[in-house]
What does this fold into?
Amino acid sequence: MSVWKKYGAAMLLLGLGVAFLAFGVGRGEAEVVLRKAANLCMECIGLG
Amino acid sequence: MGKLLRRLRRYLRTAVQFCFTALTNGYAAGFARGTIWKGASKQFCVPGLNCYSCPGALGACPIGSFQAVLSDRNYHFAFYVAGFLLVVGALFGRFVCGWLCPFGLVQDLLHRIPFPLKRKKLPGDRWLKYLKYFILVGFVVVLPLTVLDIVGQGKPWFCKYICPSGTLFGGIPLLAANPGLRAALGWLFTWKAALLVVLLVLSLVVCRPFCRYLCPLGAIYGLFNPIAFQRFSIDHSRCTSCGACQKACPMDIPVHQHPNSPDCIRCGVCRGTCPQDAIYWTISRSRKKAQ
It folds into this structure.
């Protein structure tokens, strides 16, 4: 079985994932994640 | 020899689980001080369900991050986190659940405790296993996106009302070390603590009840199982359909029929048990053939 047949879907999704990642970073989503993750999330620990 | 190899393989997985948990929760001072790490590494997601409010957490939980971006009034989709999940899913599928998730490790350790009522699955398993997809769509996507406050912000519904990982790794250590937080205890913590206790007790009975029935991250990675680079194949010229794989599988999956079931956490117990050595990692076999 050719590599493309075996892993074609995984390769496509991997490529799509990298594109999504780059697009998300480009529009500032990583900063939103940092802002949320670097502050105590009261909801997450059951107090909010 | 075979038995020894199986035992070593089992310990290898536990060792990897411990090491990865320690590595991604390495801010030890946080546990003593009752605070969390605030460094730049927190903009990066870790693959497993690892609450970013755990005092030791050095990275961000992908499910929490996904809700955080969706809840932000400036965004309607979390491309950054979705991209991360696509990359990890396409590479590993639910291998992450079996080898890299801290809450999975806790459930695995509890399930090893001898208990008289051990079962392969809970009554209603056939329907209960779809609950995680409902939680994924409802609590992780739809509610954070649609239920907004007066300034247009949503909230992390899954983290707030369901996530036991946040209670165990975030809530309990922070409350233990920080008296100021203890003053804010209320009904929400009682609810989340009760849910955690139920899941921990259930872990004594069935293997990984949270992963099997409730985890939205497992639901996502499970969808990648059939196509991921890291997946199982069956050598049909060797398989005798003896059923030894299903008997050994902690998730009760008939691996010889469905090697890439969305419920498979890739623990690899079936591979070690198969008397015909008929279950193999697709990627490792292609390498062998290429050599």
Summary: The CA atoms of residues 73 and 156 of chain B lie 13 Å apart. Chain B touches chain A through 62 residues (CB under 8 Å). Strands of chain B lie at 232-234, 279-281.
